Amino acid sequence: MPDNTLTRIAAELGGHGKPVQWQDGNTLISRAPFGALQVHVEAEGLTMRLEAGTEAQLQMLRESFLHFLDHAVDGVSGQVVWSGHRFRLTTPPNFRLVTVRGVDRSFPSWYRVHMHGEDMAPYGRDGMHFRLLLPPEGRVPDWPIGADVRQSVGAGSISRRSSTTTAATSLHGSSARR
Fold first, then answer.
1. What does residue 123 show for φ and ψ, rounded to 5 degrees?
2. Which of 73, 90, 110, 149 has a Cα-to-Cα distance from 176 of 20 to 30 A?
3. Domain residue ranges of the chain, discontinuous segments joined by +
4. Of 137, 134, 130, whose CA–CA distance to 115 is shortest?
5. CA-to-CA dists, residue 94 to 12, 84, 153, 155, angstroms
6. How many other C-beta atoms lie within 10 A of the C-beta of residue 35?
7. Number of other CB atoms surrounding residue 71 within 10 Å
8. Distance between CA atoms of 67 and 27, rounded to whole angstroms?
9. In sequence order, which residues have a C-beta less than 8 Å from that of residue 73 and are 6 or more positions away?
10. Residue 145 carries which DSSP code?
11. What one-character-per-residue DSSP string does 96-119 give?
12. Where is the segment annotated Disordered (predicted)?
């Protein structure tokens, strides 16, 4: 990993409007309304700690962090080894099977999608951004499964990061200093 990996992560977070605080020059902390992230530089790489109020929020935090990490150092998220909270082999906590009731096009690249489904209350409070997982026509849906892996297991043509964690993880490699 590049020597300035931590600075790159901070720049990615800041560039997306996420608050970043530095602690002791070797640790950055970012807090969101639903959770917190701490990234610390060690001799063998990075150690990250993610915390959130619910499993679904933790999943969202984890996926977001992996996205920022890949933007900071291309492809490095594949080296992350998560430890801590273990997830069930079931659909990810933020997965909902819904019926689309209508779509309004507000702007050329922005749509408001009206949906109906079970357990949608969390999205009424926190809002949501989502991805539609649509199988090819004539193919039976193969929904993602949250597991103790970096990415959800699921539809071969659907690549999606979806499992979550709470505790620490280590990313080993060459120096990751600020």
1. -80, -20
2. 149
3. 5-87+162-172
4. 130
5. 24, 19, 15, 17
6. 20
7. 17
8. 19
9. 1, 2, 5, 8
10. B
11. --EEEEEEEEEETTEEEEEEEESS
12. 154-178
CATH of domain 5-87+162-172: 3.30.310
pLDDT at 28: 94
Q: How confident is the model over 147-168, as pLDDT tens digits?
A: 543 443 333 323 333 332 222 3
CB 173 within 8 A of CB 2: no
Distance CA 67, CA 77 (A): 8
Residue type, 32: A
Cα angle vertex 50, ends 44, 52, to 5°?
Answer: 175
**pLDDT digit string, tens, across residues 8-56:** 999 999 998 999 999 988 899 999 888 999 999 887 788 889 998 887 7
Helices 5-15 & 55-72, crossing angle to 10 degrees?
120
CB-based burial of residue 56 (10 Å sphere; 0-12 exposed, 13-18 middle, 19+ buried)? buried
Task: Sort strands 98-107 and 35-42 into parallel, antiparallel or unpaired.
Answer: unpaired
